[in-house]
Design a protein that fits this description.
Elements lengths: L1 E3 H4 L7 E7 L2 H7 L6 E2 L2 E10 L3 E15 L6 E15 L2 H6 L6 E3 L4 E3 H12 L7 H5 L4 E2 L2 E2 L12 H8 L13
Parallel strand pairs: 6-7
Antiparallel strand pairs: 1-8, 2-4, 3-5, 4-5, 5-6, 9-10
Protein backbone atom coordinates (compact mmCIF):
# COMPACT_ATOMS: atom_id res chain seq x y z
CA UNK A 1 0.00 0.00 0.00
CA UNK A 2 1.97 2.92 -1.33
CA UNK A 3 0.54 6.30 -2.19
CA UNK A 4 2.06 9.41 -3.71
CA UNK A 5 1.35 12.57 -1.75
CA UNK A 6 -0.17 14.14 -4.90
CA UNK A 7 -2.72 11.30 -5.03
CA UNK A 8 -3.74 11.88 -1.41
CA UNK A 9 -4.28 15.65 -1.80
CA UNK A 10 -7.66 15.02 -3.40
CA UNK A 11 -8.82 13.41 -0.11
CA UNK A 12 -8.65 16.67 1.84
CA UNK A 13 -12.43 16.98 2.28
CA UNK A 14 -13.40 13.32 2.36
CA UNK A 15 -10.97 10.60 3.44
CA UNK A 16 -9.81 7.77 1.23
CA UNK A 17 -11.60 4.62 2.45
CA UNK A 18 -9.39 1.55 2.53
CA UNK A 19 -10.64 -2.04 2.36
CA UNK A 20 -7.88 -4.23 0.96
CA UNK A 21 -6.21 -7.59 1.35
CA UNK A 22 -2.42 -7.33 1.21
CA UNK A 23 0.37 -9.88 1.33
CA UNK A 24 3.44 -8.89 3.35
CA UNK A 25 4.78 -12.41 3.89
CA UNK A 26 7.98 -11.88 1.88
CA UNK A 27 9.14 -8.72 3.70
CA UNK A 28 8.03 -10.23 7.03
CA UNK A 29 10.21 -13.30 6.56
CA UNK A 30 13.07 -11.20 5.20
CA UNK A 31 13.14 -8.56 7.96
CA UNK A 32 11.76 -10.43 10.99
CA UNK A 33 12.74 -14.07 10.48
CA UNK A 34 13.75 -14.36 14.14
CA UNK A 35 10.18 -13.56 15.31
CA UNK A 36 7.95 -14.53 12.38
CA UNK A 37 7.88 -17.79 10.46
CA UNK A 38 5.16 -16.56 8.11
CA UNK A 39 2.47 -13.92 7.77
CA UNK A 40 -0.84 -14.80 6.10
CA UNK A 41 -2.56 -12.22 3.85
CA UNK A 42 -3.85 -9.27 5.89
CA UNK A 43 -7.24 -7.59 5.74
CA UNK A 44 -6.78 -3.82 6.12
CA UNK A 45 -9.70 -1.41 6.59
CA UNK A 46 -9.83 2.23 7.57
CA UNK A 47 -9.20 5.65 6.14
CA UNK A 48 -6.45 7.98 5.03
CA UNK A 49 -7.06 11.71 5.01
CA UNK A 50 -5.05 14.70 3.87
CA UNK A 51 -5.33 17.31 6.63
CA UNK A 52 -4.46 20.96 7.01
CA UNK A 53 -0.78 21.91 7.15
CA UNK A 54 -0.01 19.13 4.65
CA UNK A 55 -0.34 16.38 7.24
CA UNK A 56 -1.65 12.94 6.39
CA UNK A 57 -3.67 11.04 8.98
CA UNK A 58 -3.84 7.25 8.77
CA UNK A 59 -6.31 5.18 10.77
CA UNK A 60 -6.33 1.47 9.89
CA UNK A 61 -7.56 -1.76 11.42
CA UNK A 62 -5.35 -4.71 10.52
CA UNK A 63 -6.55 -8.30 10.87
CA UNK A 64 -4.48 -11.34 10.12
CA UNK A 65 -2.69 -14.48 11.19
CA UNK A 66 1.01 -14.66 12.01
CA UNK A 67 2.86 -17.96 12.22
CA UNK A 68 5.22 -17.75 15.19
CA UNK A 69 7.72 -20.25 16.63
CA UNK A 70 6.70 -21.90 19.89
CA UNK A 71 8.82 -20.65 22.78
CA UNK A 72 9.34 -24.23 23.96
CA UNK A 73 9.67 -26.38 20.84
CA UNK A 74 9.97 -23.94 17.90
CA UNK A 75 7.00 -25.67 16.24
CA UNK A 76 4.84 -23.24 14.23
CA UNK A 77 1.91 -21.66 16.07
CA UNK A 78 -0.81 -19.70 14.30
CA UNK A 79 -1.56 -16.47 16.15
CA UNK A 80 -4.63 -14.45 15.09
CA UNK A 81 -4.49 -10.73 15.72
CA UNK A 82 -6.43 -7.53 15.21
CA UNK A 83 -4.61 -4.24 15.74
CA UNK A 84 -5.46 -0.58 15.33
CA UNK A 85 -2.90 1.65 13.64
CA UNK A 86 -3.29 5.43 14.05
CA UNK A 87 -0.42 7.49 12.71
CA UNK A 88 0.26 11.00 11.49
CA UNK A 89 2.66 11.76 8.65
CA UNK A 90 4.27 15.09 7.74
CA UNK A 91 6.16 16.12 4.64
CA UNK A 92 9.12 18.12 5.96
CA UNK A 93 11.58 18.08 8.84
CA UNK A 94 10.51 21.51 10.17
CA UNK A 95 6.94 20.30 10.70
CA UNK A 96 8.20 17.12 12.30
CA UNK A 97 10.42 19.09 14.71
CA UNK A 98 7.39 21.14 15.83
CA UNK A 99 5.84 18.05 17.44
CA UNK A 100 6.77 16.86 20.92
CA UNK A 101 9.17 13.92 21.16
CA UNK A 102 6.45 11.79 22.73
CA UNK A 103 4.05 12.06 19.79
CA UNK A 104 3.91 9.42 17.06
CA UNK A 105 4.61 11.50 13.95
CA UNK A 106 6.54 10.23 10.93
CA UNK A 107 8.28 11.90 8.03
CA UNK A 108 7.19 11.04 4.48
CA UNK A 109 10.21 10.12 2.40
CA UNK A 110 10.57 10.60 -1.35
CA UNK A 111 7.09 12.15 -1.58
CA UNK A 112 5.55 8.69 -1.06
CA UNK A 113 3.56 7.26 1.83
CA UNK A 114 4.70 3.63 2.26
CA UNK A 115 2.19 1.95 4.55
CA UNK A 116 3.49 -1.59 3.96
CA UNK A 117 6.53 -0.99 6.16
CA UNK A 118 4.45 0.82 8.80
CA UNK A 119 1.87 -1.97 8.91
CA UNK A 120 4.57 -4.61 9.27
CA UNK A 121 6.31 -2.70 12.08
CA UNK A 122 3.00 -2.27 13.94
CA UNK A 123 2.29 -6.00 13.65
CA UNK A 124 5.73 -7.03 14.93
CA UNK A 125 5.44 -4.59 17.82
CA UNK A 126 2.14 -6.14 18.92
CA UNK A 127 3.22 -9.80 18.68
CA UNK A 128 3.51 -11.69 21.98
CA UNK A 129 6.98 -12.61 23.19
CA UNK A 130 6.08 -16.27 23.73
CA UNK A 131 3.45 -18.56 22.22
CA UNK A 132 2.91 -22.30 22.66
CA UNK A 133 1.27 -25.08 20.66
CA UNK A 134 -2.01 -26.49 21.96
CA UNK A 135 -0.22 -29.66 23.07
CA UNK A 136 2.34 -27.67 25.05
CA UNK A 137 -0.41 -25.75 26.81
CA UNK A 138 -2.04 -29.05 27.89
CA UNK A 139 1.19 -30.53 29.27
CA UNK A 140 1.92 -30.55 32.99
CA UNK A 141 4.08 -27.63 34.14
CA UNK A 142 7.81 -28.18 33.87
CA UNK A 143 9.61 -28.93 37.14
CA UNK A 144 12.91 -30.18 38.49
CA UNK A 145 14.63 -30.87 41.77
CA UNK A 146 13.70 -28.00 44.07
CA UNK A 147 11.91 -25.92 41.42
CA UNK A 148 8.80 -25.86 39.25
CA UNK A 149 7.34 -23.60 36.59
CA UNK A 150 4.15 -21.90 37.76
CA UNK A 151 1.65 -19.47 36.28
CA UNK A 152 1.58 -15.86 37.40
CA UNK A 153 -1.74 -16.52 39.13
CA UNK A 154 -0.14 -19.22 41.32
CA UNK A 155 2.82 -17.07 42.41
CA UNK A 156 3.03 -16.32 46.13
CA UNK A 157 5.42 -13.61 47.34
CA UNK A 158 8.03 -15.18 49.68
CA UNK A 159 8.27 -13.92 53.23
CA UNK A 160 11.12 -11.49 53.89
CA UNK A 161 12.92 -13.90 56.30
CA UNK A 162 13.49 -16.46 53.54
CA UNK A 163 15.90 -14.16 51.74
CA UNK A 164 18.34 -13.98 54.68
CA UNK A 165 19.08 -17.71 54.62
CA UNK A 166 19.80 -17.61 50.91
CA UNK A 167 21.99 -14.52 50.99
CA UNK A 168 24.02 -15.60 54.04
CA UNK A 169 25.71 -18.27 51.94
CA UNK A 170 26.95 -15.63 49.50
CA UNK A 171 29.68 -14.69 51.99
CA UNK A 172 31.36 -18.04 51.27
CA UNK A 173 32.22 -16.76 47.79
CA UNK A 174 34.23 -13.85 49.17
CA UNK A 175 36.74 -15.29 51.70
CA UNK A 176 39.03 -12.19 51.63
CA UNK A 177 36.36 -9.99 53.19
CA UNK A 178 36.04 -11.56 56.64
CA UNK A 179 34.77 -8.32 58.16
CA UNK A 180 31.67 -8.32 55.89
CA UNK A 181 30.43 -11.69 57.19
Amino acid sequence: MKYLVQQLRKYERTPLLVDETIDLSAPARENFSDRLLDLKPLHVTGEISYEKNDQISVSLKIEGVAVLPSARSFYPVQYSFEIQMDELYVQDQETLDAFAQTEQVFLIERNQLDLDAAILENIVTELPIAVYTDEELKEKPISGKGWKLIDEEDYVEPESGDHKETTQNLGDFFPDNDEDR
